[in-house]
């Protein structure tokens, strides 16, 4: 029975008649696949699914090399299969990083072969998905040679699922796909989710919300219910997770858990969680041993501590090093890691300054098994932010880059907003252009470093709430695997895999995707460095979807005289947290990049920018331009009617209708807000004036 949810980019549509299909059939109709592991079972299943769909016939999966055919596919390590050993340099394969693979052609006893090989079974999974991606994109394979290794050793997805409520914090695609109460019973959707993640190279999944024990959102009866993710460390729930971990293991994906720092008190029999207490250290060591007895390849713990009500080492006059290291010592004998989130705030009036002030002095003190997980920017996944000054300035600490896949502040998967161009700006950022720094992407190549993407799919048929939002999950995985990939390369892959290879469709969808993020930045911020412009409200009504700039005067810095925040040498000194060249760049409004100008500077409303327009006029113009661009993108999508299936076309068309209307609300609300303070009308008569 066909599952009632979308295949995303693993559609495997049939290749049309022609030379390409004949080439594919000659080399892939017969497949000789090793059988030594559970991962290779997943490889065989994926080949059967993919090749049958694309070649229009069921492939023959052999247990030995076929001798009477024109060509065949061989998947295995050189040590498993002589066919493979003849086609590749065994020493080179042995030297590949974990997950690396080779896809190449060769010959065995006069028969042409297409070979997928690797040094590990996980690499064979990735290599198989790469081969199927080539076929799905209609790329030639008759004389192919591809060698790939993951740039980042750790490529995680952080789910914010609330296990005992079925909800997903910042989830915009329905309820959680994980039914923790029914585990260890497994759903087919778990396997298909593992397939999606493995196909883009993700190798770790954190199953639950980082908020494991703070007050939940207000319930309808006014009561406050506590999030109880901390309970997953209880023995009865760890036992339930074994089947789910096994499902992900088949696809080379390790299982992680978000844990509550106060667990020794919550589920143990201790009266403290002080990281410097010997009994607490012993409790964590015993709990880690229990976890690994049940899940031998367990990845480790993700921890949010001392932030937004979560307990942490500060409760015990300890610091983040003490808190992270006690957990690391517990996991070290088993090869696990602690991912310790750096998103902490509360002791500073401006949260931008706190991460660097908190963590940079601790550089070099964290255990080798700790990764400090740092958000891309200093505020909170805003539509555009400067890059966190932590990057490049903690050389003795393993860092992880935290990106938000889900669209919390970019339209919540009602609005189309493609995050890959934003992430490329982050990854290509030079952390010290005149010193000895590196680009952000170059920081994640060592053991213990990597990326973490926040936001997993939900129960919606399309997984992500918006068919176009699938591109953010795809793009995150591809960039975590290879941050040198360009936006254009990733988009081309995703569009062809998702909507087919018709040139007109590819061109139209590609142009739409590339244009969405700049439009969202313009109509939701004004485009020159403002942030936190959204409605926040009460615990129950918080939505981060509607405009509410009046709620964040500390971030907008708005007055009747001007707007922006002095995060410079004349203000709170945030700019001076960067290396000298960047500090000088940001400190001067004449050299500060315009798209970050009001983040670093409070300027008069009539201050002139480089093109002669004033600050307030630029804000007006960008707000209107963002809405006009969104209207254009809606019209472009409408031209695809009849070119793609009706379900997906209609869904996206309806979403664009909502986006255009809502973008207009943002434009009008922000324009009114700016005008109320500046009392300067728009030069084009759209805001203020006699009416």
UniProtKB/TrEMBL annotation:
| Ranges where the Glycosyl hydrolase family 67 catalytic domain occurs | 136-463
Q: Which GO terms describe its biological process?
A: xylan catabolic process
Alphabetical list of PANTHER family matching this protein: ALPHA-GLUCURONIDASE A (PTHR39207:SF1)
Membrane-spanning residues where?
Answer: none
Q: Domain Alpha glucuronidase N-terminal, which positions?
A: 8-131
Name the UniProt record assigns to this protein: Alpha-glucuronidase
Q: Glycosyl hydrolase family 67 C-terminal domain location, by residue?
A: 464-686
The species this protein was found in: Halosimplex litoreum
Instruction: Name the domain of life.
Output: Archaea
UniProt key word Cell wall biogenesis/degradation: no
Show the GO MF annotations.
alpha-glucuronidase activity; xylan alpha-1,2-glucuronosidase activity
Taxonomy, top ranks, is: Archaea, Methanobacteriati, Methanobacteriota, Stenosarchaea group, Halobacteria
Gene3D superfamilies membership: Alpha-glucuronidase, C-terminal domain (3.90.1330.10), Chitobiase/beta-hexosaminidase domain 2-like (3.30.379.10), Glycosidases (3.20.20.80)
Keyword Cytoplasm belongs to the record: no
Q: Name one Pfam family in it.
A: Glyco_hydro_67M
InterPro entries to which the protein is assigned, alphabetical? A-glucoronidase_C_sf, GH, Glyco_hydro_67_aGlcAse_N, Glyco_hydro_67_C, Glyco_hydro_67_cat, Hex-like_dom2
């Amino acid at each position: 029975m066909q599952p009632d949810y979308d295949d995303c980019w693993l559609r495997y549509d049939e290749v049309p008649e022609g030379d390409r299909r004949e080439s594919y059939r000659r080399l892939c109709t017969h497949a000789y696949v090793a059988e030594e592991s559970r991962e290779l079972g997943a490889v065989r299943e994926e080949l059967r699914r993919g090749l049958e769909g694309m070649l229009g016939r069921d492939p023959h999966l052999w247990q030995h090399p076929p001798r009477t055919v024109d060509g065949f596919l061989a998947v295995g390590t050189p040590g498993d299969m002589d066919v493979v050993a003849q086609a590749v340099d065994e020493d080179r394969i042995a030297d590949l990083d974990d997950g690396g693979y080779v896809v190449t052609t060769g010959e065995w006893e006069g028969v042409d072969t297409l070979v997928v090989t690797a040094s590990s079974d996980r690499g064979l999974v990735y290599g198989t998905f790469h081969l199927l991606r080539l076929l799905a994109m209609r790329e030639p394979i008759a004389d192919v040679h591809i060698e790939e290794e993951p740039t980042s050793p750790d490529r995680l997805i952080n789910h914010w699922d609330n296990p005992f409520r079925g909800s997903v914090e910042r989830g915009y695609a329905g309820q959680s796909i994980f039914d923790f109460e029914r585990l260890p019973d497994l759903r087919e959707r778990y396997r298909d989710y593992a397939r999606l993640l493995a196909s883009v190279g993700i190798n770790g999944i954190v199953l639950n919300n980082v908020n494991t024990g703070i007050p939940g959102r207000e319930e309808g009866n006014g009561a406050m219910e506590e999030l109880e993710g901390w309970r997953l460390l209880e023995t009865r729930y760890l036992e339930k997770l074994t089947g789910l971990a096994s499902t992900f293991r088949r696809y080379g994906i390790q299982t992680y858990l978000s844990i509550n720092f106060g667990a020794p008190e919550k589920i143990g029999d201790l009266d403290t969680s002080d990281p410097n207490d010997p009994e607490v250290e012993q409790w964590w060591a015993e709990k880690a041993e229990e976890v690994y007895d049940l899940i031998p390849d367990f990845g480790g713990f993700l921890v949010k501590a001392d932030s937004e009500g979560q307990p942490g080492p500060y409760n015990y006059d300890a610091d983040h090093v003490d808190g992270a290291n006690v957990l690391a010592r517990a996991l070290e004998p088993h090869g696990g890691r602690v991912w310790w989130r750096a998103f902490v705030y509360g002791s500073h009036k401006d949260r931008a300054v706190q991460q660097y002030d908190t963590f940079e002095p601790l550089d070099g003190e964290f255990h080798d098994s700790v990764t400090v997980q740092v958000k891309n920017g200093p505020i909170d996944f805003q539509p555009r932010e400067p890059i966190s000054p932590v990057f490049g300035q903690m050389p003795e600490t393993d860092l992880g880059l935290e990106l938000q896949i889900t669209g919390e502040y970019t339209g919540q998967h009602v609005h189309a907003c493609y995050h890959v161009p934003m992430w490329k700006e982050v990854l290509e950022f030079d952390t010290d252009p005149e010193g000895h720094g590196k680009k952000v992407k170059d920081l994640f190549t060592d053991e213990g470093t990597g990326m973490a993407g926040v936001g997993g799919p939900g129960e919606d048929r399309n997984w992500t709430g918006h068919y176009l939002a699938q591109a953010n999950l795809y793009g995150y995985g591809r960039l975590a695997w290879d941050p040198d990939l360009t936006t254009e390369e990733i988009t081309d892959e995703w569009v062809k895999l998702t909507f087919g290879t018709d040139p007109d469709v590819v061109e139209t969808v590609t142009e739409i995707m590339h244009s969405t993020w700049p439009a969202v930045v313009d109509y939701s911020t004004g485009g020159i460095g403002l942030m936190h412009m959204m409605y926040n409200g009460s615990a129950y009504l918080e939505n981060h979807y509607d405009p509410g700039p009046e709620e964040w005067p500390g971030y907008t810095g708005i007055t009747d005289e001007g707007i922006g925040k002095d995060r410079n040498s004349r203000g709170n000194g945030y700019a001076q947290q960067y290396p000298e060249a960047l500090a000088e760049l940001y400190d001067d409004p004449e050299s500060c990049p315009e798209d970050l100008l009001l983040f670093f500077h409070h300027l008069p409303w009539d201050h002139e920018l480089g093109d002669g327009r004033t600050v307030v006029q630029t804000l007006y113009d960008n707000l209107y331009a963002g809405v006009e661009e969104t209207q254009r993108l809606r019209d472009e999508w409408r031209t695809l009617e009849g070119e793609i299936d009706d379900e997906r076309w209609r869904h996206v068309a309806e979403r664009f209708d909502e986006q255009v209307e809502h973008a207009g609300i943002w434009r009008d609300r922000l324009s009114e807000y700016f005008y109320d303070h500046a009392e300067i009308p728009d030069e084009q008569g759209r805001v203020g004036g006699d009416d």
